[in-house]
Amino acid sequence: MIYLQPLGSYPNLIETLALELEKKFYSIAGNVKIMPLRELDKYCYNPFRKQYNSTCLLFRLEKRWITLGITEVDIYADNMNFVFGEAEIFGSRALVSTYRLRGENFKERLLKECTHEIGHVLGLKHCSDRSCVMAFSNSVYDVDKKSDEFCEVCRRKIKG
Ligand SMILES: [Zn+2]
Ligand SMILES: [Zn+2]
Q: Which ligand is nearest to the CA of 116?
């Protein structure tokens, strides 16, 4: 099961996202369930940066395989101005922020970043194939350039 956990608010298109993720990961993880809204942990807010700490939010998610937190607030990680998301590699939890994905291609960007973070949970690292969804993205420009699919190499790794 993929538990889609909204944090702080229900992001736009969360139902569409749930359906798309279910199509993609059904054979590996089964159904996608949208969980009741949870508050953002104020402890994770950095008032100097006016952003939430991504790792802090990630570690407060329930450890159920696979839990994908989704939030509309801006998030950062150490040494990064912002991140689109974060995940435990070969763990159970991932987090995506919609904050920097807004704009024309929002729906596609959201699916790509959620697929990317779930890929990490399934054990994948960043991929050098720029069209692979596991390619690292520095900007929405990079997100728009890649596809929402795993390349053959990455696909083989998660299918075992
Ligand atoms: Zn990544
Ligand atoms: Zn790849």
A: 1
Residue burial 25-55, b: 16+ Cβ < 10 Å; e: rest: beeebeebebbeeeebeeebeeeeeebbbbb
Ligand 1: distance of its center to the CA of 86 in Å?
A: 7
CATH of domain 2-159: 3.40.390.10
- Per-residue pLDDT, averaged over 100-111, amounts to 97
pTM: 0.97
Could you report the per-residue pLDDT of 3-57, keeping only the tens digit for each? 999 999 999 999 999 999 999 999 999 999 999 999 999 999 999 999 999 999 9
Q: Where are the domains of the chain?
A: 2-159
CA distance 127 to 47: 34
Neighbours of ion ligand 2 (CB under 5 A): 127, 129, 132, 134, 151, 154
